[in-house]
Design a protein that fits this description.
Layout lengths: L4 H15 L17 H11 L4 E5 L2 E4 H17 L7 E5 L4 H12 L3 E4 L6 H11 L3 E5 L3 H7 L7 E5 L28 E2 H6 L15 E7 L7 E6 H14 L8 E4 L6 H14 L2 E4 L5 H11 L3 E5 H8 L14 E5 L7 H11 L3 E3 L12 E2 L8 H4 L4 E5 L4 E5 L13 E6 L11 H7 E2 L2 E10 L5 E6 L4 E3 L2 E3 L1 H8 L5 E11 L3 E10 L8 H11 L7 E5 L12 H5 L3
Pfam families: AMP-binding, AMP-binding_C
Protein name: Acyl-CoA synthetase
GO molecular function, one term: acid-thiol ligase activity
Length: 566
C-alpha cells in the first residue's frame, strides 16, 4: 500500500513535537542573525576585540587579531588575483593559521578546501587536481610531500607556515614533541605570517553570497575515489544555528577545548564554526593527549568539550585524573566509535566531573554532520537503553523518512529501510560528479545508503551502514578508495577490500589481492610497504594474497565469500 507522504510527515512531526524535550528551542539560534559566517568574526571582533578567539598552548589570538590576520590574508590573496569561486587548499593540522586561512577564504568569497595532513602523495595529488586549487597553505613539515606532487597539479602559489611561529615561549599546557621542532626554511614557498605582516592594503569589501560555493569537504564513496561535497556559508550557518539551539548551547561565556581535527567537517563544526559563531573561546589542541586535555580544562576552566567515548574512558582510567579539577565542564558531547557510550561510563564521568555525557548527533559530510540531537533524553538513561542505536530527534528544520532500498517507497513507522534526510544544510552536489549527485539527491532528500528505523514515538534509530564504509579508530575508511589505489599497482590483477572487527581499532581494512601473472617475487610485505607510501596510515589494509578472487557473472567481487576467509 502506498503511503501518502504529506500525511506521513503530519503524523511524524506531531509525534516528534510531543517527544520534544522541555526547554530545548524549536528554532535555530543565530546569535548575530543570519549573516555570513565571515561577518560573525568581524562583528565579534567589534564587540569583544580583546577576548581570546583561540588559545594555542598558551598563545592567545584575540578576536581582533584573528579578524585582522584574516583580513590581511584576504587582501594578499586578492592582490595575487584570487577571486570569488577560486579554490584554496589548506593543508594544515589544528593550529591558529588554519582558522585565519578559513576566514580569509570566506571573506574573499573563495572556496575553502581542507586537505587531510595525513594524506600520502597520491591522495594529495588527487584532491588538488579534483578541486583545481590554485593556492595552497601548507605546514612546513609537509612541504616535502607537496613538492613531490606540485608539478602534477594546478597549484600556482604556496604559502608555508609552522607550529613554531604560533607557540608561546612559556606554554600553559603540555606541548606534543612533534610541535616543538624548529621552523623549517622553505625557499620555494611564501612564508605566511611574515607576508601578512607586510600587507598594507585593506581587505576588499565583498558582499558574500550565502548560497555560493564556500567549501569542498571531501568524503569517501563506495565507487572510486573520494568526492567533494559542495557546501555554502548558509549550510554552515544553519548547522551552527541548529546545534547551538538544540545540542551544543554555546555562548560568549563558554570556553571550548577542541582536539578533533578541524580539517574534518565534524571538527570544523565543533572546533571552529560553533565557537566562532557563538563568540566563545576555543582552546585548540593539535592532537589528542589526555594530560594535555585535563590541563587545559583546569587551567582555562573550560565549560565545553566534544570527545570520542574512547577519550573519556582514557581519562576515567588515567592514574592522574583525580589530581585535575575538571568540574568546570558543564557540557560534554561524545561520539561512539570503537567504544560505545553506556550507563557505566556516563555515571563514572559524572562522578569525576559533575557533568553529563551526551551522544552528539547523527550526520554525514553531505549534511554538514549535525542532523539529530539527544539532549534532554537522558532521564533513566532513556537514550542509551533505547535499542537499536538511538540517535534522537531531527534538529529544527530537518526531516527524516525511511524508504525501501530498492523501490524507494516510503516505509511505515517502525519498519526498517534506508535513512533519507532533507535539511537546509544538505550539500549542493558532489564536485565534478553530476551523475553521483543525481543518484544521491532525489526529490530533495539525500538517500544515505544507511539502514534505520523511525519508531512509533518519532525517534530515529541507526541500524548500520549498507555502504561498505569502515570505521578505523573513528575515522572513515572506504574499501572502494583502497581498491582504486591498489588498482594502480602494476603487479595487482584485482582486489577486494572488506572490514575485520578489531577490539582496539573498531575495524581494520583487509585487502584480498590476486596478483598479475608477471608479479614474480611480489609478497604481502612488499604490498603493505607500497600502501604505506601512498595511503594515510589508518587506511593501510592487511594484505591477504589469494590465487583468485570470487567473482559474479557481471565481474564484481563476491565480498560475502571473502568474509568467509577472514
Amino acid at each position: 500500500m502506498t503511503i501518502d507522504e504529506a500525511a506521513y510527515f503530519d503524523r511524524l512531526r506531531a509525534l516528534q513535537s510531543a517527544a520534544w524535550p522541555e526547554g530545548v528551542p524549536r528554532q535555530p539560534h543565530f546569535p548575530l542573525g543570519e549573516i555570513a559566517v565571515s561577518d560573525h568574526l568581524r562583528e565579534w571582533a567589534r564587540r569583544q576585540p580583546d577576548k581570546p578567539a583561540c588559545i594555542f598552548y598558551g598563545r592567545e589570538v584575540s578576536y581582533a587579531e584573528l579578524d585582522n590576520l584574516s583580513d590581511r590574508f584576504a587582501a594578499l590573496l586578492h592582490a595575487r588575483g584570487l577571486r570569488s569561486g577560486d579554490r584554496i587548499a589548506v593543508f594544515l593540522p589544528n593550529c591558529p593559521q588554519f582558522m585565519l586561512a578559513f576566514f580569509a577564504i570566506l571573506k574573499l568569497g573563495c572556496v575553502h578546501v581542507p586537505v587531510n595532513p595525513l594524506f600520502r602523495e597520491a591522495e594529495l595529488a588527487y584532491e588538488l587536481n579534483d578541486t583545481g586549487a590554485r593556492v595552497i597553505v601548507c605546514l612546513d613539515s609537509l612541504m616535502p610531500l607537496l613538492r613531490q606532487v606540485r608539478d602534477q597539479t594546478s597549484v600556482e602559489t604556496v604559502f608555508v607556515t609552522s607550529f613554531a611561529e604560533m607557540l608561546p615561549a612559556m606554554p600553559t599546557m603540555p606541548v606534543p614533541q612533534a610541535l616543538l621542532q624548529p621552523k623549517i626554511a622553505c625557499d620555494d614557498a611564501i612564508e605566511l605570517l611574515p607576508a601578512l605582516a607586510q600587507v598594507t592594503t585593506p581587505a576588499p569589501v565583498i558582499a558574500v553570497d550565502l548560497d555560493a560555493v564556500a567549501a569542498l569537504n571531501y568524503t569517501g564513496g563506495t565507487t572510486g575515489m573520494p568526492k567533494g561535497c559542495i557546501h555554502t556559508q548558509r549550510d554552515m550557518l544553519y548547522t551552527a544555528g541548529t546545534s547551538l539551539a538544540a545540542s551544543f548551547e554555546l555562548s560568549p561565556d563558554d570556553v571550548v577545548v577542541n582536539f578533533v581535527p578541524i580539517f574534518w567537517i565534524a571538527g570544523e563544526d565543533t572546533g571552529l564554526l560553533f565557537p566562532m559563531v557563538a563568540g566563545a573561546t576555543v582552546v585548540l589542541m593539535a592532537r589528542w593527549d589526555a594530560v594535555g586535555f585535563m590541563t587545559a580544562v583546569e587551567h582555562y576552566e573550560a565549560s565545553f568539550a566534544y570527545l570520542l567515548v574512547d577519550n573519556t574512558v582514557e581519562i576515567l582510567e588515567h592514574p592522574a585524573s583525580a589530581s585535575f579539577d575538571l568540574t568546570s565542564l558543564r557540557k560534554v558531547r561524545v561520539s561512539s566509535f570503537v567504544k560505545k557510550l553506556n550507563p557505566d561510563f556516563r555515571a563514572r564521568w559524572r562522578a569525576l566531573t559533575g557533568a553529563g555525557m551526551i551522544e552528539a548527533a547523527w550526520g554525514m559530510t553531505e549534511t554538514h554532520t549535525m542532523d539529530t540531537f539527544t539532549i534532554g533524553m537522558q532521564g533513566d538513561d532513556f537514550d542509551l537503553l533505547s535499542q537499536p542505536v538511538f540517535v534522537g530527534l531531527p534538529v529544527p528544520g530537518t526531516d527524516f523518512k525511511i524508504c525501501d532500498f530498492d523501490s524507494g517507497a516510503l516505509m511505515p513507522l517502525g519498519e526498517t529501510g534506508e535513512i533519507c534526510v532533507r535539511t537546509p544544510s544538505l550539500f549542493k552536489g558532489y564536485w565534478n560528479r553530476p551523475e553521483a549527485s543525481t543518484e544521491a539527491i532525489r526529490g530533495g532528500f539525500l538517500h544515505t545508503g544507511d539502514i534505520g528505523v523511525i519508531d512509533e514515538e518519532g525517534y530515529l534509530h541507526f541500524l548500520g551502514r549498507r555502504k561498505e564504509m569502515l570505521k578505523v579508530k573513528g575515522m572513515s575508511v572506504f574499501p572502494a578508495e583502497i581498491e582504486a589505489m591498489l588498482g594502480q599497482h602494476p603487479g595487482i590483477a584485482g582486489s577486494g577490500v572488506i572490514g575485520r572487527e578489531d577490539p582496539e581499532r573498531g575495524q581494520v581494512p583487509v585487502a584480498f589481492i590476486a596478483l598479475a601473472e608477471d608479479a614474480a617475487g611480489l609478497d604481502a610485505a612488499g604490498l603493505a610497504a607500497w600502501c604505506r607510501e601512498r595511503m594515510a596510515a589508518y587506511k593501510v589494509p592487511e594484505i591477504r594474497i589469494v590465487q583468485a578472487l570470487p567473482m559474479t557473472a557481471t565481474g564484481k567481487v563476491k565480498k560475502e565469500e571473502l568474509r568467509a576467509l577472514l
